[in-house]
Specification:
single chain, 295 residues, alpha/beta, eight-stranded mixed beta sheet, two-stranded antiparallel ribbon, 11 helices, binds acetoacetyl-coenzyme A
Length: 295
Amino acid sequence: MAEIKKVAVLGCGLMGSGIAEIAAKAGYETWVRELNDDLVKRGRGNISKSLDKAVEKGKLEASVRDEVMGRLNFTTSLEDLKDCDIIIEAVTEDIELKNEMFRTLDKVCAPHTIFASNTSSLTIAAMAAATNRPHRFVGLHFFNPVPVMKLVEVVRSIAVEQAAFKTAFDFVRTLGKEPVEAKDTSGFIVNRLLVPYMLDAIRCLEQGLATTEDIDKSMTLGTGYPMGPFVLCDFVGIDTLYFIAEIMFEEFREPRFAPPPLLKRMATLGYHGRKTKKGFYDYSGAAPVVVDLGI
Ligand code: CAA
């Protein structure tokens, strides 16, 4: 693993901040790139808060937290990432935005630099094709919350060379995560199975099978899932789920990936789940309360 010393993360939102946190925790000099100073400040604050929580819970020494923060560098410039050995993109699922960044980085980074995307639904080919290094381009799909979820899907596009794929796969292990290899089709392994499940739960609700709470209760108490499907939809984000479903439907043209009308209405009206404090549940009070969606 001598090949990777310096890690870059593009975007410091929910996923990017988690990825940067675990990379710095694993001992890598880590560079985080955000669009402007306000977003840098917010991203740095989120990582620092997460590490503080770990210290409060006795999971991390205060001195280690300070060392981890010391390994994190924040910038608004893509040029600052030119010496990084791996660049992990975790920005909004907008292919043009991603490709514009990758085109710039392709010019400034060394030929050995591996490009990776944390996309949940786009194909790696769609990004690799915008660069001159499709042979050094992989998917690294982390799960939310990144510090907790053990899995990373390492996505093998048809163009990637074995050496780059292996380096990325081994790198995941150094982060304390468990890698699995997936083919480059939309949704990879987890979302291929999880998205139709969440969409089906919404269809069950639309069809009046049972209440929101009872469907959630059934899947937690009946199958041992840590969250029911609607709590999970709110956790992932209604807008994100809608977007992923649209892309997966476009890829496979199968009805099971088609977003149900209720999901579309919620996405349109800003019922985006936990992040907007309202989705299938309302999170503005002490405990979540089911939202009346007129069903
Ligand atoms: N950062 C760090 N640690 C966190 C955390 C975070 N954001 N959120 C929770 N934790 C830790 C807590 O500190 C706690 O640690 P201890 O046990 O050591 O105290 C532990 O995780 C459990 O947390 P809680 O007790 O607060 O709550 P919980 O038992 O309900 O667990 C959960 C929370 C881990 C999120 C659990 O509910 C869970 O696994 N849910 C399913 C999550 C899931 O399915 N994620 C995948 C979403 S799909 C995706 O990400 C892919 C995509 O492309 C859409």
